[in-house]
Amino acid sequence: MCSSRSDPVPELPAPLSLGIDIGGSKVAAGVVNAEGEVLEELRRATPGRDARAVEAVIGELVHELEGRHRIDSVGIGAAGWMDLPGSTVVFSPHLAWRDEPLRQNLEATLHRPVLVTNDADAAAWAEWRFGAGRGRDRMVMLTLGTGIGGALVIDGRVERGSFGMAGEFGHQIIMPGGHRCECGNRGCWEQYASGNALGREGRELARKHSPMAAGLLAAANGRPKNITGSVVTALALEGEATAQELVAEVGEWLGLGIANLAAALDPALFVIGGGLSAAGELLLDPTRRAYLRNLTGRGYRQEALIMKAQLGPSAGLVGAADLARTQQRPLERYRR
Amino acid sequence: MCSSRSDPVPELPAPLSLGIDIGGSKVAAGVVNAEGEVLEELRRATPGRDARAVEAVIGELVHELEGRHRIDSVGIGAAGWMDLPGSTVVFSPHLAWRDEPLRQNLEATLHRPVLVTNDADAAAWAEWRFGAGRGRDRMVMLTLGTGIGGALVIDGRVERGSFGMAGEFGHQIIMPGGHRCECGNRGCWEQYASGNALGREGRELARKHSPMAAGLLAAANGRPKNITGSVVTALALEGEATAQELVAEVGEWLGLGIANLAAALDPALFVIGGGLSAAGELLLDPTRRAYLRNLTGRGYRQEALIMKAQLGPSAGLVGAADLARTQQRPLERYRR
């Protein structure tokens, strides 16, 4: 509505946002610009399960980065279930938090407003804005690590449900009476299709003294308990046959669950991120085969693509930063 | 913007819409007003699985009702999966249709534009507009009959996915390797939580010559094959103990699947309709118990309500009629 100004306006640096990703094993903080680029990133180990200690680490990270960048907004993605206003982590299976007033505590620590969201929602937002999901009307993101982080983007909006808990696809029960899950149930999908599941299968094979586990044990100094999802993934990428079989098995469970989500949600795209996605086609090829074999109505419908995430382990902090930067603006601006 | 008119305006009858519900066993047609009331309803048996014969029956029903009512719009809900534009039934497990150009054929038969949608979407729309779902931001409707008709309403819009196939919750696999489904897969939820599942369990019990099946057999003239879901439901309502057990078992599977949908979608409300919902609390009480026992994060989250549908077997035609009547108007008008 204003007329153009004739006075020269000093050029201000583009606004930067600080994104923080709180996971079960690490806290990452990064300075992110409006194009989703990370200008600087810092990482710390998650200091146990005590929320106060985590908040202190976040305070240190923010203080350090604020000393070197002009930060306009701060967004946090945490591995827990947020209430709808984004103030309280009501339940976090992997951090062992319950009813944790994270936003209030962080605002007191940081002396500024912060946006708090679920880490999987943050990662999905990043992939939709800057990564594999660009231009898709509907996208499901699955972040495979300790468990399955899930999020659904519909028409430029992360769908959070009536109470803020939507997207917990990893806790859909796909094997009644199956493996026990951190959430308390049995048979949750993430007990079959996650980095943790891959590690568990490797350890079980080793403890059975199966000759097939020789390669796994050699990589773990002969100790089954050292066999983690990361160890098996790395071995698979080196060509070790048993590790590749285990990754493929996890891919089959992943594809089955994706077929279930396609039945329910029919998105155009599934994006697979998280540590386990480093296995690439060793994981995604069996995933796609199992998806197509289990998809209801197969051969008579359009099929969603299954793609690897593009933003890597920084997706969570990039998404948290971008959500914080854009939250005050009409969402329509970000629709495609 | 217009000033009020001083000339008297002749009062026109409120516009009426004709809704048609094509199921595996019956075709129902009804004249519906803007309040969702059915002014007249006709029913015919579905004439086998031939699409031409079904279209002919629809032609007769519309012709008869048009003779007695001023119809402004026609909407069809069919037990099949529509493409996104609503022109083709791409797959119908229970009608055995594939790539059926239903809208084009009906427009040729009826000489007018028609709206074609999925029957479960239509029923959900009716319950959201006029029934159990009024005032809820998010609602999942499950119509329990031959299978599970599913639909999700988000903020006054039926969520259809990227390609039109969303809401097929009944084909989520909850028991890998389980019962074979009409869709071709094994272990689909609707093989455990539907009227057909209830009938199958009753027949199996009778064929095992279990003394527990005496009541079921007596109601079926001693012939196991006569034991259907409706027979078991009616017996349960009369107080027969085995029938009540079987209904409760189906309720437990229903509750498990609802817990899965709550994990994924977190709606405020689940509405249970279809023939099996006639069992009322005999079904819904065990459903709610199983839902609460299997809900991930239970005790730390808001829980969705599980309610019986309010519009009965006419919900599908009411919803199809109302979608046809309102489809040309901005959806925002119907947001609450």
From TrEMBL, chains A, B:
This is Glucokinase. Pfam families: ROK. NCBIfam families: ROK_glcA_fam. The keyword Kinase applies. GO terms for biological process: glycolytic process. It is an enzyme of class 2 (transferase). GO terms for molecular function: ATP binding; glucokinase activity. The lineage of its organism: Bacteria, Bacillati, Actinomycetota, Actinomycetes, Micrococcales. PROSITE patterns: ROK. Belongs to the ROK (NagC/XylR) family. It comes from Arthrobacter psychrochitiniphilus.
